[in-house]
Amino acid sequence: PAGVLYAGLPREAAEELRLQPQGSVQAEAFVSAFLKRSMPKKKDEAIRDVLTRKAVVLEHHPRRRKKPKRKKTKTLTARERRELRLFDIQPEQQRYEIFLPLHELWKQYIKDLCYGLKPDAQPQMIQSKLLKADLHGAIVTVTKSKCPSYVGITGIILQEFKHVFKIITKDNKLKVVPKINNVFSLETDGFISYIYGSKFQLRASERSAKKFKLKGTIDL
User: Pairing between strand 191-196 and 174-178?
Assistant: First the structure.
């Protein structure tokens, strides 16, 4: 009934809640305004009809919070990295002895990769692992080449790019050796593996998904 809907609060409750008592007319006006705000799409007649026929479920539409835009981290392009000379090895750092600990780490890495390099290990398994392994720190030797001046170069691989190896030799010389038309040998605990550079022209990060043929040839 309307009298019950718009009845005022008891005096004790109003004093406890610190509310100013209102008459039935003011209460009716408040309820009407509240319902209009809660149901803006309904007309006055529809609101009255809802009040007389059934209970009203008031919905609350919270404001959608805007998600903060993520700031994209800007990375350097390959050209910018070259211009900044980030890959250059300074002359004072071009010493063979500095990179011997790197070679020791690489040997342990290969042992773990090849399940300990046991004497009964299959050569094909070791060969396939080496072809996909990270070669930074490995000691390699150019055994065959179309350019005779490259033959015999031995050293630790410091950097591997798509087309070249950068190798530091025992006499502290940094050599840039192209992969194409060169054959490299790599020894690991007595096992010698051969890398045919012409079919090895990939970045180090791309070789893990590459399928290699264990037998290769090169025209020299």
Answer: unpaired
Among the residues of the chain, which ranges form H helices?
2-5, 11-16, 24-38, 44-53, 78-83, 100-113, 123-132
Mutual angle of helices 100-113 and 123-132, in 10-degree steps? 130
- pLDDT value of residue 99: 94
Percent of the chain with pLDDT over 90: 29
Q: What is the mean pLDDT of residues 85-105?
A: 89
Does the pLDDT of residue 137 top 80, yes or no?
Answer: yes
Residues in the chain: 220
SS3 119: coil
Fold of the 96-209 domain? SH3 type barrels. (2.30.30)
What's the distance, Cα to Cα, between the start and end of the chain in Å? 105
